Amino acid sequence: MSNVIAVGPYSDPDDAALREEFDARRLPGLDAIAEMPEAERATVTGVAFMGHEPFDGAVMDRLPALKAIANFGVGYDAIDIAAATARGIRVTNTPDVLNDDVADLAVAMWIAQARGFETAIRNARSGDWGRGVALPLARKASGRRVGILGLGRIGREIADRLAAFKCEIHYQSRSRKDTPAGWTYHADPVELARAVDDIIIAVVGGPETQGYVSAGVIGALGPDGVIVNISRGTVIDEEALIAALASGAIRGAALDVFRDEPRIDPRLIDLPNLLPLPHIGSATVETRAAMGALQRRNLRALLDGREPETPVN
Ligand code: NAP
């Protein structure tokens, strides 16, 4: 019997690799751990984890020999890191290999929202175009003043792309970064929102950034503003966002992540100025393969007693 369990909706190649490299036992979710016989649970030393369900101390306590959690993804807000550290459990994630995909998606969402892709595609597919149904004019994306909230690994890739779109780049982070000349630093998110047309959110998720994009930040953006979020749904005060989109206090939003995903608040989904995507930031064949490979290298290192490539704790 393997001492590794793999939790989550892995692709077929990742599933095969987990079985081959670790003889991993597959579980659909963390709940299934409780149903494993106690003797079997006691042998588990490693978990390959993929998903967003809470991996808290209570779950860890069901696996008394656990020493490694290798997360599939850079965001590890679902895992209680303090609880893991207190139990001597090492946690790893998969940063950097997904930066390009997530940054590409953020910029694509920003353009798609400005240019009204959803309505335009419907016009073409439905035959409305052929019937002479005219579309309203969209808005220009290039050259806008864009604020990146969180100039980390992904935020920087987004900013670099927007610079090529002739945008004026502003950013907010807890510390000033080494950037190309002309990028403007803001210490406060409200100050950032006041200075820009649009905001793209790339901060970490988790309790520390819950509601970081507050009603105050959204209000400071103004009626021509657009919010793009590829980070975590919890970062935005979703009630304030719904109110702002519905009243026209901001022009629009493009969201890859939601507060209660995979459920989207029905009040949001009905709004014509929202462009929703089902959390597909890193969902390409190439990037998912790289994430899976890094997850398995990290898990192998931890189980062999070596330092992993990308540790969290
Ligand atoms: P990163 O390099 O760690 O950057 C995170 C940014 O968040 C940094 O700018 C950091 O600010 C800021 N930050 C961290 N803790 C903060 C706090 N307590 N208060 C305010 N700001 C804080 O992370 P990354 O690799 O760019 O990833 C960013 C996030 O994107 C991930 O955490 C994940 O949730 C999300 N993501 C989403 C997808 C998707 O499919 N949509 C895919 C990948 C990642 P400082 O610079 O001041 O430290």
Describe this entry's structure for a reader.
The chain has 313 residues and is α/β, with parallel strands linked by helices. The protein folds into two domains: 4-95 and 285-303, Rossmann fold; 99-276, Rossmann fold (3-Layer(aba) Sandwich). It contains twelve helices and twelve strands. A seven-stranded parallel sheet has the order 8-7-6-9-10-11-12. A five-stranded parallel sheet has the order 2-1-3-4-5. Strand 10, helix 10 (238-247) and strand 11 form a beta-alpha-beta unit. The mean pLDDT is 97. The structure holds NADP nicotinamide-adenine-dinucleotide phosphate. Residues 74-75, 95, 98, 102, 150-155, 173-175, 202-205, 208-209, 230-232, 256-257, 279, 281-282 line the site of NADP nicotinamide-adenine-dinucleotide phosphate. NADP nicotinamide-adenine-dinucleotide phosphate binds at residues 74-75, 95, 98, 102, 150-155, 173-175, 202-205, 208-209, 230-232, 256-257, 279, 281-282.
Distinctive features:
7-stranded parallel sheet; D-isomer_2_OHA_DH_cat_dom
What's the structural blueprint in terms of helices and strands?
Layout: E1 4-7, H1 12-22, E2 25-27, H2 38-41, E3 46-49, H3 57-61, E4 68-71, H4 81-86, E5 90-92, H5 99-115, H6 117-125, E6 145-149, H7 153-164, E7 168-172, E8 184-186, H8 189-195, E9 198-201, H9 215-221, E10 226-229, H10 238-247, E11 252-255, H11 266-269, E12 274-276, H12 285-303
Parallel strand pairs: 1-2, 1-3, 3-4, 4-5, 6-7, 6-9, 7-8, 9-10, 10-11, 11-12
Helix pairs in contact: 1-12, 5-7, 8-9
The structure holds NADP nicotinamide-adenine-dinucleotide phosphate.
GO molecular function: glyoxylate reductase (NADPH) activity; hydroxypyruvate reductase [NAD(P)H] activity; NAD binding
Pfam families: 2-Hacid_dh, 2-Hacid_dh_C
InterPro entries: D-isomer_2-hydroxyacid_DH, D-isomer_2_OHA_DH_cat_dom, D-isomer_DH_NAD-bd, NAD(P)-bd_dom_sf
